[in-house]
Specification:
The structure holds two protein chains of two kinds. Chain A is α+β, with helices and mostly antiparallel strands. Chain A has helices at about 80-90, 95-100, 105-135, 140-155, 165-180, 215-220, 225-240, 245-260, 270-300, 310-320, 325-330, 335-350, and strands at about 10-15, 25-30, 35-40, 50, 55, 65-70, 75-80, 160, 190-195, 205, 210-215. Chain A is elongated and about 100 Å long. Chain B has helices at about 10-20, 30-45, 65-80, 85-100, 115-140, 140-165, 180-195, 205-215, 230-260, 270-305, 325-345, 350-360, 385-395; strands spanning about 55-60, 100-105, 105-110, 170, 175-180, 220, 225-230, 310, 315-325, 365-370. Classes of the chains: A alpha+beta, B alpha+beta. Chains A and B meet through strand 1, strand 2, helix 2, helix 3 and helix 4 of A and helix 1, helix 2, helix 3, helix 4 and strand 3 of B.
């Protein structure tokens, strides 16, 4: 029969053979004199003896069973007790990470620190990194990228304009004169007029300085050429502040970060990580829109024009935008009413 | 002398279980009796293995929300502070937590991966992902070429990654493994789904069936193999019900949104009304996703488990599986998970993971045959030391984010 001394550390466990599913329900005795481990079971021909320093242990993790792998490939698994943890600690096995995971103060602090760090990271670190990275993209890459994007847009949402060649030339010459009078030191911008059902009354800028204006926008602001100029200034703001490259950098960084923080989740919860990433990238997009707005407003004021031009353009666009398009604006663009308000406030500063 | 006859009808496992609960000092007599019984019963089994009926084991998940929350939040903190490098260590601890807390028939699973293997795989994945994103946003044509390259390489990554994940899991000190090869994977994951486009998606359920069968039939446990005897009819049933339920739900939510906003979406509306209509549509969208994915999971998971056998040389059964996931509880779990995650800004993720894992564990049973005690490791593939080294170098989890 087994010897049961009161001061001996004994534990029940499961003992698995190497390369086979055979196992033994065993009694494990941890020696108090040295680092010996004795394994006994009625199903074992004889007791097995090991030195703990020759064995490999997996670090403690929550309340999961402790595992010790012996040099002969056998594996011992047992439910740890305070005594067994104490014994293993005395024999040089302890885990810093396990200690941290049990530290109540650290856990409570983490509940506050983690969301704060994440907010800091998404609001300051990623945008700041993007601002520094964007100028590093070579001009040739920017030009090639713009050409490809324009080609893609022409194949999908942009149609040829309904204006005649001479009408187009009149508009474009006009805009070029307007812009060079406001921004005399800037490079020339390349204006294109297109018809687009998808975009409606809108304008968009490509990173190489190409600015696309839709027929609908020209029609909408027919009687307000200065309002149209302010929209062009907004698009030029996107170009000058390298918004395309910054946006790409920000979205990539966000996707990687969200995936690895909330990673390891599969299936339906992907919707959650997906929407989290979308919310963050939309906030970047809105921030860039504000920057472009303020760029336009600043140029208007510097050149002695009125910021009311921009406010008027925005107001006229609200009238034109139907509800479906409004949904889209909700996501990537700030509310128009706020943008109008901002334009009027910038005037009073003047 | 005590009467121990009540133990005569116990199985070997029940006896060993009972014995392990006894205190050596107080019950030495009973222990001696049990040991005797265990030995004689074991001898019986060894003589006539096919006479034994399977024992039914429930899958038991021991994970606790409070304990896992502490582990998770500390690991997230360390991942942020190390700018993501620690996330590989965090992944190992997360995976270990879920495997070591899953018990079948008195034995836990183990997760063996080393953080370094995960970290290398992760760095490769990030480099590929960033390169792909940057190049395709700068130049759509290059992006398209890369996408095609990725599609050609994907089966290789998929096989490598599944193989890695299988080999990192052990049960009773025996490793799982995956034997899927590139060409078959290319067929199943890329070619079939593309071909189904030409049938107006009518053949898509067949493609899903082929994927599942490929994954199960190429998975092994020691020297035993999984075998799935699954039917296309279940996949068509799942697809049909998903389609019906989605149409019904989308229809009723769009109808409700129109009714409550009292508008037909053409005229100008007050922002509040638009907001209410949009929230109703958003709710409908989420509910539709939840219900259709739950219908699919219920039908397909149950079908897969109930028709999968683990056997030796396709003759001697080692284990058989049973899954009884029910629809309404599953819809509730997913739906409530989603909203709790939003309300807690993701902090409830540990709670969500623990309760989902427990839900699926509770719905699963395994019938274990006596041959399960005689599974041996499959050493034929890894007999060569250089081969083993090489496969370790390339063993990594490449998970494209």
């Amino acid at each position: 029969m087994m010897n049961t001394l009161a001061n001996r550390l004994q534990i029940n466990g499961q003992y698995y053979e190497e390369h086979s599913s055979t196992f033994h329900q065993v009694t494990v005795t941890f020696s108090h004199e040295d680092d010996g481990i004795r394994i006994q079971s009625p199903s074992l021909a004889s007791d097995k003896l090991y030195q703990f320093k020759q064995a490999k242990t997996a670090s403690a993790l929550g309340n999961t069973p402790r595992e010790i792998r012996f040099p002969d490939g056998f594996l011992l698994s047992f439910q740890a007790t305070q005594d067994s943890d104490h014994w293993m600690k005395n024999h040089g096995v302890s885990s810093i990470i396990d200690t941290l995971e049990r530290n109540a103060r650290l856990i409570i602090a983490s509940i506050i620190i983690v969301p704060s760090l994440l907010a800091l990271f998404f609001i300051y670190v990623i945008p700041a990194a993007a601002i520094h990275l964007a100028p590093l993209v070579p001009q040739s890459v920017v030009a090639a990228s713009s050409r490809q994007t324009l080609y893609g847009l022409e194949k999908t949402i942009l149609n040829p304009t309904t204006l005649t060649e001479s009408q187009q030339n009149t508009y474009i010459t006009n805009w070029q004169q307007e812009i060079s009078s406001i921004l005399p030191n800037n490079r020339p911008y390349h204006f294109i007029i297109k018809q687009s059902e998808f975009l409606g009354a809108n304008a968009l800028a490509l990173p190489d300085g190409t600015i696309i204006i839709t027929d609908d926008l020209i029609k909408l602001l027919q009687d307000h050429p200065k309002a149209l100029t302010s929209i062009l200034l907004h698009e030029i703001g996107h170009v000058e502040e390298l918004h395309s490259m910054r946006y790409i950098a920000e979205v990539i960084a966000t996707t990687v970060a969200v995936n690895y923080l909330f990673g390891d989740i599969s299936g339906l919860l992907d919707i959650f990580t997906g929407s989290a990433a979308t919310v963050v990238s939309n906030s970047f997009s809105q921030k860039l829109e504000w920057e472009a707005d303020n760029y336009a407003l600043e140029q208007l004021r510097k050149s002695g024009r009125s910021t009311e031009d921009f406010a008027l353009a925005m107001e006229l666009m609200t009238l034109e935008v139907d509800e479906q398009a409004l949904e889209k604006l909700f996501s990537t663009h700030p509310l128009i009413s706020e943008r109008v308000k901002n334009a009027r406030e910038k005037r009073s500063v003047d | 002398m005590n009467d121990y006859t009540e133990y005569d009808n116990y199985s070997v496992e029940e006896l060993t279980q009972k014995r392990s609960t006894l205190d050596e000092a107080n019950s030495s007599e009973l222990i001696a009796h049990l040991d005797l019984l265990i030995r004689s019963k074991q001898a019986d089994i060894n003589e006539k293995p096919n006479l034994q009926k399977p024992r039914i084991a429930k899958v038991i998940f021991h994970g606790k929300t409070s304990e896992y929350f502490a582990i998770w939040i500390v690991n997230v903190l360390l991942s942020i502070l190390t700018l993501g490098i620690y996330s590989a260590w965090a992944t190992v601890r997360n995976n270990r937590y879920f495997h070591s807390n899953t018990e079948i028939d008195g034995h836990r699973f183990r997760y063996l991966a080393k953080p370094m293997q995960i970290l290398i795989g992760r760095i490769i994945a990030i480099v590929l992902f960033v390169a792909f994103s940057v190049l395709s946003s700068l130049n759509p044509v290059v992006g398209l070429v890369l996408l095609i390259l990725l599609m050609v390489a994907a089966p290789w990554f998929i096989c490598r990654s599944i193989r890695f994940n299988c080999r990192m899991i052990t049960y009773r000190n025996i490793q799982f493994n995956f034997h899927g090869k590139y060409l078959k994977a290319l067929l199943v994951f890329i070619v079939y789904p593309i071909l189904s486009l030409f049938t107006l998606y009518l053949a898509l359920p067949l493609a899903f069936k082929a994927m599942d069968k490929f994954l199960i039939d190429h998975t092994s446990y020691g020297d035993t193999r999984f075998h799935a005897d699954i039917k296309a009819s279940s996949y068509y049933k799942a697809a049909g019900l998903v389609l019906l339920a989605s149409m019904a739900l989308i229809g009723s939510f769009v109808g409700a949104a129109m009714f409550f906003t009292g508008q037909n979406f053409t005229g100008l509306m007050e922002p509040e009304v638009v907001g209410a209509g949009q929230s109703l549509l958003g709710l409908g969208y989420i509910l539709t996703l939840v219900v259709s994915s739950a219908i699919y999971t219920k039908i397909i998971r149950n079908h897969l488990y109930n028709n999968t056998v683990l056997s030796q040389n396709n003759e001697q059964k080692v284990a058989q599986f049973k899954s009884q996931v029910e629809l309404v509880p599953l819809v509730w779990i997913h739906f409530s998970n989603f909203f709790v995650l939003i309300i807690t800004l993701g902090l409830a993720l540990p709670w969500v993971k623990i309760r989902s894992t427990r839900f699926f564990a509770n719905a699963t049973e395994v019938a274990i045959y006596p041959a399960a005690d005689k599974v041996v490791a499959d050493l034929t593939k890894n007999g060569n030391a250089i081969g083993e080294e090489l496969s370790n170098v390339f063993d990594m989890e490449v998970a494209i984010p």
